[in-house]
Design a protein that fits this description.
Strand content: under 5%
Mean pLDDT: 92
Radius of gyration: 24 Å
Structural class: mainly alpha
Length: 67
């Protein structure tokens, strides 16, 4: 039986080939849709937190706990 020897160079070249031949063409085909989705998700979560924090602060004041 032959020994199979994988070097770090093989691993890094494999990761590079995966990105250049697999992931990046998919992202190019999608265009700006992933950016818009990520940005809108961040904005929605930010507004939710801005909505929720005053309620939690008010509840903490009523109970006498930490803010």
């Amino acid at each position: 039986m032959q020994n199979l020897m994988i070097t770090w160079t093989d691993i890094f070249y494999g990761i590079g080939d995966l990105c250049t031949n697999g992931i990046f063409p998919i992202l190019r085909a999608l265009g700006h849709k992933p950016n818009i989705l990520l940005g809108s998700t961040i904005v929605i979560v930010l507004f939710y937190c801005m909505y929720k924090v005053p309620k939690l602060n008010k509840e903490a004041e009523e109970k006498g706990t930490l803010k």
